[in-house]
Specification:
With 875 residues, this protein is of the alpha+beta class. Strands 1, 2, 3, 4, 5, 6, 7, 8 and 11 form a nine-stranded antiparallel sheet that branches. The relative contact order is 0.10.
Length: 875
């Protein structure tokens, strides 16, 4: 048995050796077979990769179908700090993972879309997983940001489209340039798309995908960077040792070294070749070697895709170049660069095979597959993590401010805007939204010219207006541009300047009832005009107000009776107030004729109170009327029984009325006050018309300082109330501070459009203060003539203040000038206003008291006349 054991052991060893040999032989044969049939292995690997990629794509498409989009809209006061922006970046990174567990990493992303298509300067959208909507909806930016659920954007196909993907080049561990928040980091991108033209199909869109960095990829990249740093350090140490040895050898082999060696080469000296110690490789510091990749916190991977399109060849490519230059602002030791290869004049990139299909898939589905170099920290993306701020200068596009079209009744001309590309266009606001407008600036700065251009354009579009100009200069300036046959029947001139040897004057009876006015409204309008012009109120002039009210009540009742009797030519005028107060016979006849039209309280006042008044109590009422009567023009204008001037009819029939009061003295102020109060009364009387049937009407007041000096409360009430009746007031003044406080407050509070030309800084400061001193008074004060800063309301949003050039009539409306038709227009305007020679109207006014007296005598009941003649209390 003992002799057989070695034999068995030997056989077992031989068997094991044979098995190992057979295994090695089989392995060698397998390798040999694979070597000769490598294509089968490659095919198997490709098949497995293709199947895996197909599965991943399917899952990613399914996950991407459940996405949402939010649009962030910032207001003009949006000014976030760095901490707020950083917190927003943390939200975006966290929201990118709010996906099902099975979703592939390429679908776990949040996308920032910066889009410009000519309709808005730059739309800012955030798209991400549905599960992250709540997290993304609540921003740290506060109330200055509006977050709206956004609908998918469907683009029409453009003729020319270019695509590009940007990657980070430079040192992988180096951050992008730290761009300050003022000016806005988005400003270069906004400037790059500021000249987009929607009518040409221009489109530019930037998509930034943010994805949380995978830990395994980060560890692998760190290992790679540390290994590369150590290799580099070893190479540097070897290079330094090489040069050190070379330098030492050079010194020893030199003449000086040899001589020194001979002199020191004595027995027992022990001299020999110098020992050279090679430098030890320096220890690699992780923070220095890894840079921005040293810390895990707030490190993300990004994908930056850009697409530009246009229907005009070359514009899309030029736009891409502009965007590339804009992204250069973020470049430092690391920078954004186009991905692809350049072969001479050609670039092979996202627009070409084989990368175009992958680009379009990522673009359409929102997948993020960034290059390995695109690692950034959230601090580097500060400029892209928020919408445009207050420090961003946004261009004004056609979608923000419509382009003026001559003859369009929905648009109101504002001025000439010069775009970033140098193109000029006439811009406008929507007439329905332009409720009140205020223009300020120094004399000759162009505010009246701008108002005239606006009024003329409104007239040609079929709108009605009244232009009140105390100086009359606006009328001859506008004549050539209004001298069109279709406008002449609508134009009326009320000129009280009395120019020429026998001027033509229109007529107006403030007390006239032949137009169907309400009696109490007429009395109230005239009384309020008196009180406004003379600074009366219930505390300072209660008796004067009572006397005037009672007198006007009687005269209006007389006129009402005359109109009902079919004799409007026998109506009393405002100059008959004197006769009613001082002429006992006329007073007796008037009270008797309208006794049944007066209420009991009014009859009692005339019967009981009036006889107790001393004669000098009437002077305060009669003196202003005496001044009006002393001027032949105003006496002729106001002394006619059935005046032609009817501002309510002008409103309803879209008339174009020019009113030139003729001056700014005390007498003119009372007349202006009467006209202004009548305008307010007429506008308020439109409450008898349903709102949708009220025809828009625009009063233009030149020289508001003059007009408000006569009727401050009336003008203030217009800026407060008239929009309800579709009357939209436009006022011009040199100095806002010269206006009465109620008018100034109402103007600024309710102005839909606020404009100013150049002027002194102290005069401009109240306007620029409404804009937050942006622009500053110093900047506005140095503008050229006809330049304006204007803020406007468009679609419920304020646009501006932006700089516009005022439209000059000779340039803007040169095609509408008809100088040969000016004489015909002047005749038509006077005829429409019922203007007659001054001497004719003066004679009629002088005989009007007799006609009124005759009417009263003929229409006084007999019993009432006998009773009143016996009652001394009435006299």
């Amino acid at each position: 048995m003992d002799s057989a054991a070695p034999h068995l052991t030997s056989r077992a060893d031989e068997t094991a050796a044979g098995q190992v040999l057979g295994l090695l032989t089989g392995l060698i044969d397998t390798v040999d077979w694979l070597y000769h049939h490598w294509y089968l292995l490659a095919l198997a690997i490709a098949t497995c990769w293709g199947v895996g990629e197909l599965v991943v794509r399917r899952l990613a498409e399914r996950a991407s179908a459940e996405r949402m989009a939010l649009e962030l809209i910032s207001n003009r006061h949006f000014d976030p700090g760095l901490e707020e922006i950083f917190r927003r970046g943390v939200q975006l990174a966290r929201a990118s993972t709010a996906m099902p567990w099975w979703a592939p990493r390429r679908a776990k992303t949040v996308q920032i879309r910066l889009r410009a298509d000519g309709s808005t300067p730059l739309r800012y959208r955030v798209e991400g997983p549905v599960g992250g909507e709540r997290l993304l909806s609540i921003t740290p930016f506060g109330p200055d940001i509006t977050v709206n659920r956004a609908r998918p954007i469907v683009d029409e196909p453009r003729t020319h489209t270019v695509r590009a993907e940007f990657i980070l080049r430079g040192k992988l561990i180096s951050p992008l340039r730290e761009v300050p928040l003022a000016p806005d980091p988005l400003q270069p991108l906004v400037d790059a798309v500021s000249d987009l033209r929607a009518e040409l199909g221009d489109l530019a869109e930037i998509r930034l995908d943010i994805q949380r960095a995978p830990k395994w990829a980060l560890r692998a990249r760190r290992l790679q960077l540390m290994s590369a740093a150590r290799r580099s350090e070893r190479r540097e140490a070897q290079r330094a040792a090489h040069w050190l040895r070379q330098d030492a050898s050079g010194i020893e082999d030199s003449w000086g070294g040899q001589l020194q060696q001979l002199l020191s080469d004595r027995p027992g000296s022990g001299a020999g070749r110098r020992l050279v110690m090679p430098p030890v490789p320096r220890r690699v510091e992780p923070t220095e070697a890894l840079g921005k990749l040293a810390e895990d916190d707030h490190l993300v991977r990004v994908q930056l895709l850009v697409m530009c399109a246009s229907n005009i060849e070359g514009r899309a490519q030029a736009r891409l170049s502009q965007l590339q230059a804009a992204l250069d602002v973020f470049g430092g030791r690391s920078r954004w660069s186009l991905r692809g290869w350049r072969l001479g004049p050609w670039r092979i990139g996202a627009d070409h095979w084989p990368t175009r299909r992958g680009f379009e898939r990522r673009w359409n589905l929102g997948h993020c597959q960034p290059p390995r170099a695109n690692w950034v920290r959230l601090e580097e993306l500060t400029g892209l993590l928020k919408p445009p701020t207050v420090n961003c200068r946004l261009p004004v596009l056609a979608g923000d401010l419509p382009t003026f079209q001559f003859g369009d009744p929905e648009l109101l001309l504002q001025g000439i805007y010069r775009g970033p590309d140098g193109r000029q266009r006439l811009v406008a606001t929507y007439a329905e939204e332009t409720l009140f407008e205020v223009g300020t600036g120094k004399a000759g700065g162009g505010k009246t010219e701008r108002a005239l251009a606006q009024a003329i354009a409104w007239a040609h579009a079929g709108g009605g207006l009244v232009f009140v100009d105390p100086h009359r200069d606006s009328w001859p300036r506008s004549l050539p541009f209004l001298a069109h046959d279709h406008l002449m029947p609508r134009i009326a001139l009320v000129d009280l300047n009395g120019l020429g040897p026998n001027p033509q004057v229109s007529s107006w009876n403030p007390l006239g009832m032949h137009h169907g006015q309400a009696a109490h409204e007429v009395v109230e309008a005239i009384t309020d005009a008196y009180a406004s012009a003379l600074a009366w109120d219930d505390a300072t002039a209660p008796r004067a107000l009572t006397i005037l009210t009672a007198t006007l009540t009687v005269l209006v009742a007389v006129n009402e009776a005359a109109c009902q009797a079919g004799r409007p030519e026998d109506q009393a005028t405002i100059f008959h107030v004197r006769a009613l107060l001082t002429d006992a016979a006329f007073r007796t006849a008037a009270l008797a004729a309208v006794a049944d039209r007066l209420d009991e309280e009014t009859r009692a006042w005339w019967k009981v109170v009036f006889p107790t008044l001393p004669p000098d109590a009437f002077a305060v009422v009669l003196n202003p009327l005496a001044r009006l009567a002393a001027n032949p023009v105003t006496r002729a204008f106001l002394g006619q029984p059935a005046g032609v001037y009817n501002i309510r009819a002008a409103m309803d029939s879209r008339m174009i009325v020019w009113v030139c009061p003729g001056g700014n003295g005390p007498t003119d102020r009372l007349l202006t006050a009467l006209l202004a109060r009548d305008l307010l009364r007429a506008a308020r009387s439109r409450r008898d018309t349903p709102e949708h049937r009220r025809v828009p009407f625009r009063p233009y007041f030149d020289e508001l300082i003059t007009l408000t000096g006569a009727a401050p409360e009336t003008i203030a009430a217009m800026f407060e109330d008239l929009r309800k009746y579709r009357c939209h007031v436009h006022g011009m003044t040199q100095l806002l501070s010269r206006l009465p406080t109620p008018v100034r407050l109402s103007l600024v509070q309710n102005a839909s459009t606020l404009a100013t030309t150049a002027g002194s800084t102290s005069a401009i400061a109240p306007i620029t203060a409404e804009w937050g001193d942006n622009p500053s008074p110093d900047r506005v004060a140095t503008m050229e003539r006809f330049e304006h800063f204007v803020s406007m309301n468009v679609r419920g949003h304020r646009v501006g203040p932006i700089q516009l050039r005022g439209p000059h009539l000779d340039d803007v409306f040169a095609a509408q000038a008809r100088p040969n038709n000016v004489p015909a227009l002047e005749r038509a305007a006077q005829a429409n206003a019922g203007a007659l020679p001054l001497d004719h109207l003066t004679a009629r006014a002088a005989g009007q008291l007799g006609r009124v007296t005759a009417f009263l005598t003929a229409h006084t009941p007999a019993g009432a006349a006998v009773h009143l003649s016996k009652d001394n209390e009435w006299n």
